[in-house]
Design brief:
Length: about 375
């Protein structure tokens, strides 16, 4: 950072909040009943406040609640009175091994610069509604029909537990409801073997449906060779998520024939770097998907501001929906997803700033707040 834009930190604090969910959130590799939110609060000498968060997700990557806490603590140690650029360098030094932790601090440092994107009337961004491939067919039909009637136009299907169920669900969503126009994404969260991924990708293509958007992260994040086989098959377009952290990963995705990449504020080193990665991916011809379904409203607020700053750079639909799973959002009702699946602010710019400023101001470093 240049001297003119290198503010001094008055305080840099962090804590953990156990945030129960309204209902269990089922993934191919985990079932979650709560999010453990590691939050960071940055107050600079001008009085501006920024927040960031990280929610560990076992199975998504290698970081744990303990590792995130330890890394955030080390970054924030003795930070009061130091320049923002000095803390950025600390974050940069641990980024490769601790991307969630570093990104939480970076988001807190950068958020004040993007709060002017909290405008009225608020911008709206379509969200994908989640369904699961293992549901009975009639339940799937009923839920999807209710979503379409309400106004949703994007559906995201969690696949990867049973290939037969996955194919059955794909055929249902891609061939039924004649005349209805909506998009469908199928997300394996790394759960398919390469052979199952090739079979499923072909099944998607054989449906010959304009509703199909992409097939997301079919195989393990470390199996780049397997991912290339799926990407280069003549099946469905593939978007990579769990293996995309920095510029080199984006470029590798392009080389192996991926259709696109998925970015998240929690793994891509803050708002500014996320936007830079998105621009670079677009310059390579890749679609850019965005948003975190396992985040608190702190993280999703940062993602909303990123979407607004991106000005159409991100593919529809976003997935900034973690906050909607919480029984009690940490910042109050700042964000909303309406009945038609539109993600937006539910507060004025002044209310957003007030809520951000109030959060965590009395908490001691490394405090554990009651969930």
């Amino acid at each position: 950072m240049a001297a003119a834009t290198d503010p001094i930190l008055r305080r840099l604090r962090w804590g953990v909040q156990h945030a129960p969910l309204t209902k269990p959130y089922e993934l191919s590799f985990a079932s979650l009943t709560a999010f453990d939110v590691v939050w960071v609060r940055a107050e600079i000498e001008t009085g501006d406040i920024g927040l960031g968060d990280a929610v560990p997700l076992p199975g998504y990557n290698w970081e744990t609640l303990d590792s995130i806490r330890a890394t955030v603590s080390a970054i924030c140690d003795d930070a009061d009175g130091r320049s923002a650029s000095a803390i950025v360098e600390r974050c940069r030094g641990v980024r490769s091994q601790h991307p969630f932790a570093a990104s939480a601090v970076m988001a807190a440092l950068e958020l004040p610069s993007f709060l002017d994107r909290a405008k009225q009337p608020p911008e709206q961004f379509p969200i994908s509604a989640p369904v699961a491939a293992e549901w009975p067919v009639q339940k799937l039909r009923d839920v999807v029909q209710a979503l379409l009637t309400s106004g949703y136009r994007y559906i995201k299907v969690k696949v990867g537990r049973n290939l037969d169920d996955d194919i059955r669900t794909a055929r249902c969503l891609l061939t039924e409801w004649p005349g209805e126009h909506f998009g469908v994404v199928f997300d394996a969260n790394q759960a398919h073997s390469v052979e199952d991924a090739l079979t499923f990708s072909q099944a998607l293509r054989q449906c010959a449906s304009s509703r199909l958007q992409w097939y997301e992260q079919p195989v393990d994040r470390d199996d780049w060779q397997g991912m290339e086989r799926v990407c280069r098959s003549d099946g469905a377009p593939v978007v990579l998520d769990e293996c995309i952290y920095d510029r080199s990963d984006v470029e590798r995705a392009r080389r192996i024939g991926a259709y696109g990449v998925k970015l998240k504020l929690v793994k891509n080193f803050g708002i500014g770097e996320t936007l830079a990665l998105a621009r670079h991916a677009r310059s390579l011809g890749l679609a850019v998907v965005y948003g975190n379904g396992v985040a608190s409203d702190i993280g999703n607020l940062g993602e909303y501001l990123t979407l607004a700053a991106g000005e159409g750079m991100f593919a529809s639909a976003s997935e900034c929906s973690g906050f909607a799973k919480l029984k009690t959002p940490l910042l109050g009702p700042l964000l909303r997803i309406d009945q038609a699946g539109q993600f937006s602010l539910n507060a004025s710019a002044a209310e957003v700033r007030t809520a951000v400023s109030a959060f965590g101001q009395d908490a001691a470093t490394a405090s554990i707040l009651a969930g």
